[in-house]
Design a protein that fits this description.
- Component of the tartrate utilization system and may allow entry of tartrate and tartrate dehydrogenase.
- It holds the Pfam family MFS_1.
- The protein contains 19 helices and no strands.
- With 458 residues, the protein is mainly α.
- It has one domain (7-214, 223-442): MFS general substrate transporter like domains (Growth Hormone, Chain: A), CATH 1.20.1250.
- α2 (23-43) packs antiparallel against α10 (180-202), α8 (144-152) packs antiparallel against α15 (305-322) and α9 (154-170) runs antiparallel to α14.
Length: 458
């Protein structure tokens, strides 16, 4: 590296360029991805449920069966990404899911809805863990929480922007001879196909191939990542030998499985809200004898997610500046687990949405910090498989949240019991995160003095 380019300055400019050139584009892909998979939640209370004669349990099953399709190909998809490169594989995923999503425009039975939701999961399989893996391979671990936090902003902003967009599209009922909810599916699907084509030419698999980096920046990123990966591979851990870069290692790592359970709890809460919040808001009309237009319901749905995006940004910024610590994940899990069961006991729509906002802030604060953990002790094929395995647990939670929430609502007649279950799973995540950190600190007392206690998870 040239003497005229001090290491600190090169590091700063390299990370800034990655943040500007890659993260916004991958976040846009995530925005469209999350909008396509949750569009069904906007469609159900705005005509689809009535047109297809869906019960709450049937809608829950349709919401959740997406994740069964996703689970089938999750790990194989991420291994294919590791082999063929993110540029080709993420582009392929986007185009195929956009095509399947487009077919929802013409669905006319619950059976067709189930089939397309399953196929949408198959088509999307591997996108989210692939995006996490891709971004993790561009920056050293000390910058990863910040980068993943910027990427994760796309998820709450999808609802902030997507709910009003969905409401606006649904409000154009009759355009092209389509019901409003069908029109929404048509127009939210096309961007996925277009972005997939653009991604083929725009994305770059590794820093060494990035022409928009200077030679010094390329050398620094390549050397920093190679040194970090070598340290992981060389680290001797006789308990689960997780540092070896093979598929067997990821599936044999107890830490990976515990992290999968932690993620399960968060994602159960995330999708219980994502799929059923519009339906809960629609129910306010009978519960409180009021009336909302389609756009009113869309804006109310968006309310919890704007504060969540703000909290996510500052929470991940704090974790980056002061070191990622166990309470950055466990703390929000406790707040979310306590708040969500209270939501329907507030006595007014405003108070209910306020409590749900607290829960949404908790979930989104923790998730990007959580995803900085697996890549601290996994590399190569083990990282691809381990991240996919953890995300598979999240997709099981996505199926369970949709189906169980709907089934419990039909059985009990209200959403009280389903939301208490959400609270239980989030508190479970907090307990497991604390236990995992304490277990590894006990096993390696020296890690307790590390400036970044999450390093104990190595």
């Amino acid at each position: 590296m040239g003497a005229d380019a001090p290491v600190a300055a090169v590091e700063r400019t390299a990370i800034k360029k990655v943040s500007v050139r890659l993260v916004p584009f991958v976040a846009l892909m995530f925005f469209v991805n999350y909008l396509d998979r949750t569009a069904v939640s906007f469609a159900e209370p705005n005509g689809m449920g009535a047109d297809l004669a869906l019960t709450a349990a049937q809608f829950g099953f349709a919401s959740g069966i997406f994740f069964l399709g996703y689970i089938v190909l999750e790990v194989p998809s991420n291994m294919a990404l590791h082999r063929f490169g993110a540029r080709r594989w993420l582009a392929r995923i986007m185009v195929t899911w956009g095509i399947v999503s487009l077919l929802f425009t013409w669905v006319d039975s619950s059976g067709q809805l189930y089939t397309l939701r399953f196929l949408l999961g198959v088509a999307e399989a591997g996108f989210f863990p692939g995006a996490i893996l891709f971004l993790s391979q561009w920056v050293p671990s000390r910058h990863r929480t910040k980068i993943l936090g910027l990427f994760y902003l796309a998820q709450p902003l999808t609802t902030v922007l997507g709910a009003p967009l969905a409401g606006w599209l649904i409000g154009h009922h009759g355009l092209f001879g389509l019901e409003g909810w069908r029109l929404m599916f048509l127009f939210v699907s096309i961007p996925a196909i277009l972005l997939g084509v653009i991604a083929w030419f725009y994305l770059i698999d590794k820093p060494a191939d990035a022409k928009w980096l200077t030679p010094d920046e390329r050398d620094w990123l390549t050397d920093a990542l190679a040194t970090e990966n070598a340290r992981k591979v060389g680290h001797d851990d006789t308990r689960d030998q997780h540092a070896k870069g093979d598929l067997r290692t990821a599936f044999g790592s107890g830490r990976v499985w515990v992290l999968a359970l932690v993620y399960f709890g968060f994602v159960y809460g995330l999708y219980a809200l994502a799929f059923f919040l519009p339906t809960i808001i629609n129910g306010f009309q009978d519960q409180y004898d009021t009336t909302f237009s389609v756009m009113d319901k869309a804006w109310i749905t968006a309310i919890p997610y704007l504060p969540a995006a703000v909290v996510l940004f500052f929470w991940t910024r704090h974790a980056t500046r002061h070191g990622t610590r166990t309470w950055h994940v466990a703390g929000p899990a406790v707040v979310g687990g306590v708040s969500i069961p209270l939501a329907l006991s507030m006595g007014s729509p405003a108070a209910t949405i306020a409590v749900i906002t607290v829960t949404a802030c908790s979930i989104f604060a923790a998730l990007p910090v959580f995803w900085s953990v697996p890549s601290r002790f996994l590399t190569g094929a083990a990282a691809a498989a381990g991240i996919a395995l953890i995300n598979t647990a999240g997709n099981i939670a996505g199926f369970a949240a949709g189906y169980i929430t709907g089934w419990l609502k039909d059985w009990t007649g209200a959403y009280y019991v389903p939301l208490y279950l959400v609270g239980f799973f989030m508190l479970m995540s907090a307990v497991l995160m604390i236990w995992l950190s304490a277990r590894n600190r006990t096993a390696d007392p020296a890690s307790g003095t590390d400036q970044e206690p999450m390093e104990a998870l190595r």
